[in-house]
């Protein structure tokens, strides 16, 4: 016999402590416990059950309003696979599994502010008004979904690990290379242990060859996932390096393999994944690092910029 409660999953009369990692991209708060169980049990699930788990992790709001057959069809598996997956993570069946998601809907935890009227006005503004509205909608939705799924506690813990580290390696390739380098550049105005990788002429696995448990790797990639980033995360785990994984799905291999996993929404009407949420998250992470740092970091940043003014790097404005 099993039952579910917010914050706790009860198995055969014994309460097992559950945690809510910020690697879970969720539209609800109530169902965090269920989603964290799916993430924890991922490696023990069969490939077919992982299809169901991936769909639930990425579409938690669908669970509360969908039958077992509808979930099975969406995940492209048989209905009994959905039931077996629910039982494997500690529930009596699909209905028991679905209850926290239904509760979230009843409590209204799954809704976001309504901007329909404003977006309708944008759509009336010429031929490209529709595209403009779609881009605005996607950007705002991505930010909301990203930060709705991030735990302040997990963010603080990752920031403290970064500040306490010997070296921080920030890894991004493709479009995320510029995001990683921008984060590293901003951090370097007050801290010296940040390194953007891969370095010119090098590879990520070579760049972290001598890193160990005193170091941190911040890795980011969105679908289609870059192999060199996945390999670097796997190697980092072998070497005891703490990993901060940033990706577009809680089922992403670099999120599941991270000490601190964070999911950023990257949907967009354009061809390439959106970087809006990634940049916003990195800025927030850096602000937490600075907040966790020693008081002298403020003096360091001020000295850095004072020196730039003295060297004439900035165009001085007339007073």
From TrEMBL:
<dbReference type="InterPro" id="IPR046348">
    <property type="entry name" value="SIS_dom_sf"/>
</dbReference>
<dbReference type="InterPro" id="IPR001347">
    <property type="entry name" value="SIS_dom"/>
</dbReference>
<dbReference type="InterPro" id="IPR036388">
    <property type="entry name" value="WH-like_DNA-bd_sf"/>
</dbReference>
<keyword id="KW-0238">DNA-binding</keyword>
<dbReference type="Pfam" id="PF01418">
    <property type="entry name" value="HTH_6"/>
</dbReference>
<dbReference type="InterPro" id="IPR035472">
    <property type="entry name" value="RpiR-like_SIS"/>
</dbReference>
<dbReference type="InterPro" id="IPR009057">
    <property type="entry name" value="Homeodomain-like_sf"/>
</dbReference>
<dbReference type="Pfam" id="PF01380">
    <property type="entry name" value="SIS"/>
</dbReference>
<feature type="domain" description="SIS">
    <location>
        <begin position="158"/>
        <end position="295"/>
    </location>
</feature>
<feature type="domain" description="HTH rpiR-type">
    <location>
        <begin position="32"/>
        <end position="108"/>
    </location>
</feature>
<dbReference type="GO" id="GO:0003677">
    <property type="term" value="F:DNA binding"/>
</dbReference>
<dbReference type="GO" id="GO:0003700">
    <property type="term" value="F:DNA-binding transcription factor activity"/>
</dbReference>
<keyword id="KW-0804">Transcription</keyword>
<dbReference type="GO" id="GO:1901135">
    <property type="term" value="P:carbohydrate derivative metabolic process"/>
</dbReference>
<keyword id="KW-0805">Transcription regulation</keyword>
<dbReference type="GO" id="GO:0097367">
    <property type="term" value="F:carbohydrate derivative binding"/>
</dbReference>
<dbReference type="InterPro" id="IPR000281">
    <property type="entry name" value="HTH_RpiR"/>
</dbReference>
<protein>
    <submittedName>
        <fullName>RpiR family transcriptional regulator</fullName>
    </submittedName>
</protein>
<dbReference type="InterPro" id="IPR047640">
    <property type="entry name" value="RpiR-like"/>
</dbReference>
């Amino acid at each position: 016999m099993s039952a579910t409660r917010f914050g706790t999953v009860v198995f055969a009369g014994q309460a097992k402590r559950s945690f809510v990692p910020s690697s879970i991209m969720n539209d609800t708060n109530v169902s965090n416990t269920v989603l964290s169980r799916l993430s924890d049990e991922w490696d023990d699930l069969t490939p077919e059950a992982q299809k169901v788990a991936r769909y639930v992790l990425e579409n938690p709001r669908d669970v509360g309003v969908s039958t077992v057959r509808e979930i099975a069809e969406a995940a492209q598996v048989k209905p009994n696979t959905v039931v077996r997956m629910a039982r494997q993570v500690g529930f009596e069946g699909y209905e028991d599994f679905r209850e926290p998601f239904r509760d979230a809907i009843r409590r209204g935890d799954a809704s976001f502010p309504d901007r329909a009227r404003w977006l309708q006005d944008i759509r009336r503004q010429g031929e490209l008004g529709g595209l403009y509205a779609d881009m605005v909608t996607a950007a705002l939705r991505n930010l909301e979904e990203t930060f709705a799924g991030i735990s302040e506690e997990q963010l603080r813990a990752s920031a403290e690990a970064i500040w306490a580290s010997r070296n921080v390696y920030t890894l991004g390739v493709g479009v995320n290379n510029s995001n990683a380098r921008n984060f590293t550049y901003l951090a370097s105005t007050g801290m010296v242990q940040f390194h953007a990788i891969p370095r010119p002429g090098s590879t990520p696995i070579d760049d972290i060859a001598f890193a160990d448990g005193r170091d941190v790797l911040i890795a980011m990639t969105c679908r289609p996932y870059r192999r060199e980033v996945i390999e670097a995360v796997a190697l980092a785990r072998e070497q005891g390096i703490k990993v901060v994984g940033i990706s577009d799905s809680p089922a992403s291999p670099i999120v599941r393999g991270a000490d601190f996993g964070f999911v950023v929404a990257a949907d967009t009407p354009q061809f390439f994944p959106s970087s809006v949420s990634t940049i916003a998250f990195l800025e927030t992470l850096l602000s937490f690092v600075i907040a966790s740092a020693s008081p002298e970091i403020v003096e360091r940043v001020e000295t850095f910029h004072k020196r730039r003014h003295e060297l004439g790097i900035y165009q001085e404005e007339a007073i």
